[in-house]
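Bug #77: duplicate submission created two jobs. Keeping one. Sequence:
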Amino acid sequence: MKRIINTDAAPKPVGPYSQAVFSGGFLHISGQIPLDPKTGEMVGPNIEEQTRRVLDSLKGILECENWDFSNLLKVSIFLKDLHDFKVVNAIYESYFTDPVYPARETVEVSALPKEALIEISAIASSTSSASSTSSSA
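Kept job's structure:
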């Protein structure tokens, strides 16, 4: 069974999709672009403001389940310009208090909805990360 997640802490979808879907202990968060949740308008002309807005939207969706960034398993970052990676990465890191980060990829794309500079989607689990384990083949 799946449960649809909707919150005022993140912008309403700009198409036929849900902000997030919870099923089987996993939360699948749709790609978030830097829209103000109250107005639906794009925030900030620069990558710093847009990145913070997107991460705040992810945080708002996670909080619907009483979760935080430690519950993230996988994050996908889509950038209009990969030259923004260093700035985005520094802001992204500041949202985590635990050194156990989720799996992630970052890719450059030719365009994003509403001419956004960044979009982030994620998968989270009801079990938060508690430790870091390293192994080698």
